[in-house]
Amino acid sequence: MRKATLTRILSSSSYIIPGFVEIPFPPLNSHGGSLPFPLTASRTSSVFAHPLSRNVSTFLPPPEWIEPFIDISDLTIQNPRNLQSSPWIDRITNLLQDSPTMESDLSSFCHRFLIRLSPNFIAHVLGSTRLSKTTKVAFQFFRWAEKQKGYTHKLESYVFLIDLLSSSAQDSEVIRTLVAEIRDRGFVMTSSTSNSLIRSLGVMGMVEELLWVWRWMKENGIEPSLYTYNFLMDGLVNSMFVDSAEQVFEAMEAGKIQPDIVTYNILIKGYCKLGKTQKAMDRFREMESKHVHPDKITYLTLIQSFYSDGDFDACLGLYNEMEEKGVEIPSHAYSLVIGGLCRDGKVIEGYAVYESMGRRGCKANVAIYTALIDSFAKGGDVEEAMKLFEKMKDEGLEPDEVTFSVVVNGLCKAGKMEKAVECFKFCRENGVPINAVLYCSLINGLGKGGMVDEAERLFEEMEEKGCVRDSYCYNALIDAFAKAGRIDSALALFKRMEDEGCDQTVYTYTILIDGLFKKHKNEEALKFWEAMIDKGITPTPASFRALSMGLCLSGKVARACKILDDLAPMGILPDSAFEDMINVLCKAGRVKEACKLADGIIDRGREIPGRVRTVLINALRKAVSVIMHLDRKIISVIHDKSFWDVPIPSSTSWRRHVRVSSFIHLDTWLLSPP
DNA sequence: CTAGGGTTAG
């Protein structure tokens, strides 16, 4: 019956007095019937016993401390500790808003109803989830509460507030102050408060405070539980104190509480964060012997780490292990494994994993489909790529701008320009955001397909549409111009790039160097090379190739060699540089120069790779007449068994173990005897 | 009650 009355009062509109905060002092009616008193007999009588008027304030009792719960056990005998939530909780909570008057609202409310909020009450409100979104309000409330006469916070209030502040990534200074206050007050530690504090401080990465709480626990005779250890470990790991975490781990192993799967996962995460994936693997392998079985989190943490390292084989290995052991495979693990295989060009394997994913009832997402489409297209199978594109749409997945970009790129590479343009138009008409990458894919395709004007139009459209053009876009159009022989347009765009503040890259230079050589502007090409080096741009194998091929074909083999020799000490010279030159010389029928180059490489004490020998041999065979004019040194090199006596790659038309010496033997009569 | 995580494109 009392309970029913309580409910009625809580829900009745008369209970809520609109605008009461504006009333400087509550003109309470004398019988007090509408007051929100907690419905206990003692409370009711105590308030009714006093006149509620200001001018008799000297007779007022001290404001009553409000507790969060009302003991109504007197009403329910069978259940002796029946606690009912106080109706004041809702009323106070309603006042807690992000407003400048919040604190004065609270004060006048309490003044009006002659109440003080007890330490338990404050702790209860701070601990209730309703404040979790407004940490600022919680903090103000906390500070307001301690202004009440005779009030002192309970430890729980600190702990709840710190929990709120840490879970919303607040300024650590505030928390530091609160921890200092806890320290000064000399509270008695309990196991639940210490756990919560250690978690909060761990999230914030406040290691000093974390360790203080740890010591404080020990002083209070609280033995850390497994949870406490794990919280501490995670706190240390999250703030990159992996070494300390490792020490805690070892202390655990030596003590009463053994590390569990969570402890292992935290430590493994720590090693991975440091990039020490191998060390993480060592721990992982050691788990089984300690009878702790890796779970999906252990595996995913490791797979993620190997993925970041680019070690996709290791990702696959761990994935296979998960399958064998029947560990649940999270969809993110599939994403990483399939993504890795696709990036390695192993699209068939990637597709197989995708299929087994489907068999396990796990649905692929846009990223997985995009990775597969891209990999199929790059592997030359646009048909299969487009099939997957249709399939993902059938499954109700919305291709995003990345998917479209991959599709456009694939269609371009396959020479299906019409379809690529169609796809691009679809994006434009259907609200798919067209970013620089998508533009660039099509500009590239149009350029490679000889539709330079269309490429140029698209490039200009980017500016109209306010899409910022990065170096990729410039490079695409510069390449289109250069390949079409419009070297002046290319150079003009290079200039414009500079004017518009877009940095030229090694690709920009490579395109131009190649284009200039093709136009026989050898000196200008060299100038670009030097400008690039001066700018501190690191050459790539492709840029070497463009330069050395240009120089070789314009008859400046020696100069090319010199440039390459100069760069060799910098350690950036690719092994393929001379190889490329030999290739290009052979292709141009300049076998003698190619052989000379080979001699030079031997003279430098370096080895000629098998495939280069093959190229040389084939060129020699095609040009027996050249052999006749070879000088003695080249002949001796050719006759040198250590140079030639190596199996020739099976990719040639020759059988695997055919040796040049035998070929040379056939033609010995052509040569003057050594 | 703790612990992992976001992938795809030029």
Helix % is 55-70%
User: How many helices?
Assistant: 37
Distance between the termini: 123 Å
Number of DSSP E strands: 4
Strand content: under 5%
Instruction: Return Rg in Å.
Output: 39 Å
Arithmetic mean pLDDT? 82
| Strand order within the widest beta sheet | 1-4
| Weakly predicted, low-confidence segments | 1-57, 624-637, 640-674
Overall SS class: mainly alpha
The biggest sheet amounts to: 2 strands, parallel
Shape: elongated
What can you tell me about this protein's structure?
Among the domains are: 52 residues, no CATH class; 68 residues, no CATH class. The N and C termini lie far apart (123 Å). The longest helix has 14 residues. It contains 37 helices and four strands. With 674 residues, the protein is mostly helical. The chain binds one DNA strand of 10 nucleotides through helix 9, helix 11, helix 13, helix 15 and helix 17. Keywords: Repeat. This is Pentatricopeptide repeat-containing protein, mitochondrial.
Secondary-structure blueprint of this entry?
Layout: H1 2-11, H2 41-48, E1 64-66, E2 69-71, E3 83-85, H3 88-95, H4 102-113, E4 115-117, H5 119-127, H6 135-145, H7 155-167, H8 172-185, H9 191-204, H10 207-219, H11 226-238, H12 242-254, H13 261-273, H14 277-289, H15 296-309, H16 312-325, H17 331-343, H18 347-359, H19 366-378, H20 382-394, H21 401-413, H22 417-429, H23 436-448, H24 452-464, H25 471-483, H26 487-499, H27 506-518, H28 522-534, H29 541-553, H30 557-567, H31 576-587, H32 591-603, H33 610-622, H34 624-628, H35 632-639, H36 641-644, H37 660-666
Parallel strand pairs: 1-4
Antiparallel strand pairs: 2-3
Helix pairs in contact: 4-6, 5-7, 6-7, 7-8, 7-9, 9-10, 9-11, 11-12, 11-13, 12-13, 13-14, 13-15, 14-15, 15-16, 15-17, 16-17, 17-18, 17-19, 18-19, 19-20, 19-21, 20-21, 21-22, 21-23, 22-23, 23-24, 23-25, 24-25, 25-26, 25-27, 26-27, 27-28, 27-29, 29-30, 29-31, 31-32, 31-33
The structure holds one DNA strand of 10 nucleotides.
